[in-house]
Structures are given as C-alpha cells and as structure tokens.
Task: structure prediction
Amino acid sequence: MAQFYIGVDRKARRCYGFDEIALVPGKVTVNPSETDPSFEFAGKTYKVPIMASAMDGVVDVEFAVAMGKLGGIAVLNLEGVQTRYDNPEEVLEKIANATPEEATKLTQSVYAPPIKENLIAKRIKEIKKANVPAIVSSIPQKAQRFGKIAEEAGCDIFIVQATVTTKKHISKQYKCIDLKKLCKSLKIPVIIGNCVTYDVALELMETGCKGLLIGIGPGTACTTRSVLGIGVPQVTATTDCVAARDKYFKRKKKYVSIITDGGMSTGGDICKAFACGADAVMLGNAFARAKEAPGRGYHWGMATPHPNLPRGTRIKVGTSGTLAEILFGPARTDDGTQNLVGAVMTSMGNLGARNIKEMHSVEIIIAPSIQTEGKVFQVAQRVGMGK
Result:
C-alpha cells in the first residue's frame, strides 16, 4: 500500500473505510434465492452470518433466544447488568429514562457493583433452556475464571474481548492472562478481540483461538477514536487481518474466522465487509433498534461506564421493527437498515457469488463518491441514502 509523508521523514499509510469503496458486479449473476449466506464456525453452520454484539442495550437472555431461533448468534456481556443484578430490567429502565446529561454518570454508578458469579451460569442456562446456542463475552482479566464457569454451564462459544487485545500484554498491577493457555484449557471454541493489524492478528492466531474480532473504535456508540486517538478504518483493518488468516492457514492448515466488528450501519456495509474477506460481521446499532432489544431504543458501548475514562456514550437509535424484520424483512425503512440477510443475498447474486467464500474474491474499487453521486434529492429530503 502506498506510503505518504505527513512531515519530514514521517511516513503514514493511507487506509480506507466502508464509505470509500464499492463492489463491482462480475460476468455472472446468480439468483439471490439460490445463494448461501451461512457462516461456518468451529464445525457448526449458522444461517445468519451477522452476530449481535455483547452490549447491554442489545443482548439479554430473551434477545439471545430470539436470535438463536432465527439461526444467528447473539453475545451476552458477562461484565454487564445481566450478571450484576438479579433483576436487570429495573436498571435498564433507569438508563433508558435518564437525560443525556445524566446518562454517563448513571451508567458509571450502575456498573459499579461487583459481578455475581452465580448469575453467569444462571443466564447461560436460561438461554440453553430454549435449545439455542449460548455465547458470552468477558474481558481478558476475568476470562480464565469466567470461561470455566461458562463452559460448565453449557456455553457454546466463549469470547475474550477488550478495546485492544494483544498476545503480549505488560502489567505490574495484575497477572496477565495467557491466551494460549486459556484456549487450550477450554473445550469450547474461543474468539479473541479486538485487533486491527496483520502482525497482531497473526500472533493471536497462534493462541489456538477459532476466531478474531476486528475493529477498534468504529462502533456507533463508541468514542475511543476521539478519546484515545487510536483506530484503523474497517476496510483496511479487515483486509490486513484477512491476509494474516490466509497466511496462517497456508502455514498451519488451521482456519481462523475473521469477524468484522463495528462500523457497519447498512446492508451495503455488511456486503463490503464480506468482500474484504470477513467470514462474519458483528453489529450493535442495527440490533439495538429491534423491538426485542433490552435497551428500549437506546444503545451504549461496553466502555461507556468506565469509572475514570468512559469511551462511549448512550445514543438514541429508536425502535424500527422486529428482529425478524431487521434480519429477513420485509423492510419497513428505505435506508438499508432492515432485511440485512436479504441485502447480502441480493448483493451476492448481483456479484455472482454463491456463498460468503466467493464474496471474498469480488472486485473492489476505491470510490469516494459512491455515497453522494446522483443522490442530491435524497440528501435534500433526508430520505434513503440522505438520512
């Protein structure tokens, strides 16, 4: 990739986000209804290649069950209100009713009480009772202990997630987790996140994990990029980590799934992530709008309640439809935020891709005008792509 000078002897690399690229139709088209958008992971096939992120405004037990019954994956946050409170509904109601001025202070106080470890197993068993997969997320410092509790409770996939995760972490204040030891000790597949670079992705794959979450700061409710100044646009982050996946597979014959996490608000963005090489994507904002979401039309990131340096904010996303409508339609909106699976299948058909693997090979072009070209009336009237 081209290098540019931003000052004397100081080079910088040009990176790209979803708004700057477009996908080019191929020579062959496929009937969209005959395409297969499913996601294969650790020997299992999931009908929906779109995961719901581990955020308290997005996933609770009921949402996880609903997502599972529709063939998808919803991740429950083990560091959130679901494991701190016997009755999280009361807390979620308070957060939804708080004024914008009160929201950050309130979430900081709400997340101050300790996690009740008995609730970890309880929530997982509540999900499993509905005969759907249970997937949970923990920060690295708690992963070893919470991972064992989750596994014993019947968890299907365990996710270790932090703003930035590396194989080598330095700290004198606490004992650092050995990610390789964790992956080896658990009998269930482990996904690790988040990372955005080729070298770190390659090192994390050496731990024995089955998947990586890609993305730092692109989430709708996340302010990490403004607070900390770090992040890589998702197109470049995904393609760099995909290159690491392919090299690792060629060298070790072990396939590690790449899951693009955040930065996508429409079906088109999701399609672009697959074209960049992602095996699946993870969304928060899109699902926070579902009637089944526990946030009551509000969405906030996992770092929002940080006691000293919150890196997120509570935002109002509203409620636009049911989870089924958001995933499979019929779409009630004109902005590409509903019938996401239908959008992926239609895009695949027009691109001539029969499955997600074939999506990885479609032509991508740099197209900064793709969002505005010919859309003057939509922008003026704030409809469709002009919202």
